[in-house]
């Protein structure tokens, strides 16, 4: 078996494909034999002309590859290859899986139970709350949440999984050391402590638009199903859904208002039978054979715990899944602002309410 630096060097050849690298490795030849092979022999293994001509630079590519392994060690990351024991099992099954994966954090066998949550960067409050709800319940069912670390739905899903103490994996379109903006880099460090950040791109590589579709194929490829929360008719989430369909993976779409551009993509997926309609996380879990523990969440009746104070119960009854301003709650309950805020704080401590920006609250 070739060493990791040798495999990195092969994948660095211009124009070489994943299948060509795998074909070379699976011949069983040693690295030097591959480098010394004739152009005709290399062409027979599926190498394109640019890759064949690039073989003359193999010594330099190998030095760069060894520098990548050193950089990974300094960064606290690891480098997996297609034949590594801990390479994601589902990823091996997809067309043209990446030969090399750069990983910050830890990939576990149980991450095979994973679902992608994707959507628009310009999420509405409806999209945000939906992404968070799905991520939380997936984690409660022991399912790993996978997304792309992008602003909007992706980051809401990752953040909710982190709050739920669940596992989450971010697939990125740059080197592990080139994540931007800084808020995304901060979240990536948190994710690495509770899951993993992975990329097929080496250290030092900055994201460019062409890399994002390649990133999306990994998101769908390493998961049992993809949930599209909000998306217009074009965008990264729709590309991910398309990859998932090509990979024979399940696709689910959350319906949205027909007047919202952010729901034109999801509603279109449902209308054209390219995605299953989902109205709750349980829909997805049941379809994939994953099940929520009976003890998870509030009782189906929605009844609050018996130990609530009178004011807390009054506020709890006035809350629902839509954010409400504290002044609106005061008007509907007859409580003063100070009474309502104390009750809301108590509900937050008990995990029954959540504060949004602008003194808006909703029931958890």
Shape: elongated
Estimate the strand proportion. 5-15%
**What order do the helices and strands follow?**
HHHHHHEHEEHEHEHEHEHEHEHHEHHEE
Structural domain count: 3
CATH architecture of the largest domain: 3-Layer(aba) Sandwich
Integer average pLDDT: 92
The total strand number stands at 12
Briefly note the CATH topology name of the largest domain.
Rossmann fold
Number of helices: 17
Unreliable stretches, pLDDT < 50, 5 or more residues?
295-301
Q: What is the helix fraction of residues, given as a range?
A: 40-55%
Instruction: Give the biggest beta sheet.
Output: 9 strands, mixed
How far apart lie the N and C ends? 52 Å
> How do the strands line up in the largest sheet?
1-2-6-5-4-3-7-8-9
CATH class of the largest domain: Alpha Beta
Cα gyration radius (Å): 24 Å
Structural class: alpha/beta
Structure description:
By secondary structure, the protein is an alpha/beta fold. The protein has 3 domains: 1-67; 109-288, Rossmann fold, CATH 3.40.50; 310-363, Arc Repressor Mutant, subunit A, CATH 1.10.10. It has 17 helices and 12 strands. It has helices at residues 4-11, 18-25, 31-35, 39-44, 49-54, 58-75, 89-93, 125-140, 153-163, 182-193, 211-221, 236-246, 264-271, 281-288, 310-318, 326-333, 337-349; strands at residues 78-81, 100-105, 114-118, 144-147, 168-171, 195-199, 225-228, 250-253, 276-277, 324-325, 353-356, 360-363. It has a 9-stranded mixed β-sheet with strand order 1-2-6-5-4-3-7-8-9, with helices on both faces. It has a 3-stranded antiparallel β-sheet with strand order 10-12-11. α13 links the parallel β8 and β9 (276-277). α15 crosses α17 (337-349). It is elongated. Mean pLDDT is 92; it is low at 295-301.
């Amino acid at each position: 078996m070739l060493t990791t630096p040798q495999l990195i060097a092969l994948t660095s050849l211009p124009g070489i494909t994943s299948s060509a690298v795998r074909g070379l490795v699976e011949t069983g030849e040693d690295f030097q034999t591959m480098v010394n092979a004739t152009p005709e022999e290399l062409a027979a293994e599926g190498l394109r002309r640019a890759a064949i001509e690039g073989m003359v630079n193999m010594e330099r590519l190998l030095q760069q590859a060894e520098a990548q392994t050193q950089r990974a060690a300094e960064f606290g990351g690891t480098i997996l290859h297609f034949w590594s024991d801990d390479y994601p099992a589902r990823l091996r099954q997809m067309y043209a899986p990446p030969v090399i994966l750069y990983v910050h954090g830890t990939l576990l066998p149980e991450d095979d139970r994973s679902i992608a949550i994707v959507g628009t960067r310009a999420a509405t409050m409806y999209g945000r709350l939906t992404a968070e709800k799905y991520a939380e319940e997936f984690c409660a069912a022991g399912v790993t949440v996978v997304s792309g670390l992008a602003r909007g739905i992706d980051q809401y899903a990752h953040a909710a999984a982190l709050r739920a103490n669940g596992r989450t994996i971010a697939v990125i379109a740059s080197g592990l050391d080139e994540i931007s903006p800084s808020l995304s880099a901060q979240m990536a460090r948190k994710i690495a402590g509770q899951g993993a950040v992975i990329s097929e791109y080496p250290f030092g590589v900055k994201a460019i638009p062409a890399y994002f579709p390649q990133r999306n194929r990994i998101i769908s490829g390493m998961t049992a199903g993809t949930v599209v929360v909000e998306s217009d008719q074009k965008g990264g989430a729709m590309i991910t859904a398309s990859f998932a369909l090509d990979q024979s993976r399940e696709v689910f779409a959350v319906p949205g208002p027909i007047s919202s551009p952010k729901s034109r993509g999801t509603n279109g997926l449902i209308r054209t039978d390219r995605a299953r309609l989902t109205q709750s996380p349980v829909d997805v879990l049941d379809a994939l054979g994953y099940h929520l523990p009976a003890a998870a969440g509030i009782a189906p009746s929605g009844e609050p715990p018996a130990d609530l104070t009178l004011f807390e119960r009054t506020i709890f009854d006035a809350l629902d899944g839509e954010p409400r301003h504290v002044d609106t709650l005061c008007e509907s309950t007859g409580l003063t602002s100070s009474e309502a805020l104390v009750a809301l704080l108590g509900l937050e401590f008990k995990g029954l309410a959540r504060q949004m920006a602008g003194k808006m609250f909703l029931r958890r």
